[in-house]
Amino acid sequence: MNRFIKPQIIAIAFLSLGLCGPARAGGASPAAPENDAIFQSFVGHWVSNEPAFGLAAETTMVWAPTLGGKFYRIDYRIEMHAPSGEISVFEGIGFYPAGQGKTFRAFWADNTGDLHPVSAEREGKVLTVIWGRPETELGRTRYELKSPDQMKVADWVLTPDGWHQFTQKNLTRSGD
User: What pTM value is reported for the model?
Assistant: First the structure.
């Protein structure tokens, strides 16, 4: 892909999801470190060896500030091992804006080809995100910091019968 087209696509994605706020004098956004405390507590490399979708799996999750501290990025990967030896991988990335209030917008993209708008809410040590669109697929992910080195991540999808949980992981902060 042309190296100039890719940044334009990313910029269009940000604009279409409403992530670009109003212009401010000096071009800087006001710092709101107290609102970023949950992300700061998530920063690091997390792992789990719990099964996923009924298969043996290794899960990695990495949270890090990015783009000059304007966003926090999550890289999430599940490598699943079938009894036949076949390996399947789910991986995605999300970008969450720094310095926002209790509720805010973000986005998620993954190797299924999905680009989901995200509505997020922080409360204490919990980040709850609603991803997708009602006309296609709507999901919910809950990140709960159980202790400084333990996090529980659970995912649901909205079905005609209500929310259906399809995965839950207990991750441990690793030294990587």
Answer: 0.80
Tell me: the pLDDT tens digits for 34-64? 668 999 999 999 999 999 999 999 999 999 9
With residue 126 as reference, give the H or E element that holds it: strand 126-133
Specify the long-range contacts of residues 169-173, CB closer than 8 Å, at least 24 apart: 169/48, 169/50, 169/52, 169/59, 170/48, 170/50, 170/146, 171/46, 171/47, 171/48, 171/59, 171/61, 172/46, 172/47, 172/48, 173/44, 173/45, 173/46, 173/148, 173/149
**Radius of gyration from C-alpha coordinates of the chain:** 17
pLDDT in tens, 98-117: 988 899 999 999 999 999 99
Residue 58 CB partners (closer than 8 Å, separation 6+) = 47, 48, 49, 78, 79
Is residue 45 within 8 Å of residue 58, measured between CB atoms? no
Distance CA(92)–CA(104), nearest Å, equals 20
Torsion (CA) 104, 102, 148, 53 in degrees, nearest 10: -50
Which secondary-structure segment (H or E) carries 133?
strand 126-133
Cβ proximity of 45 and 64 under 8 Å: no
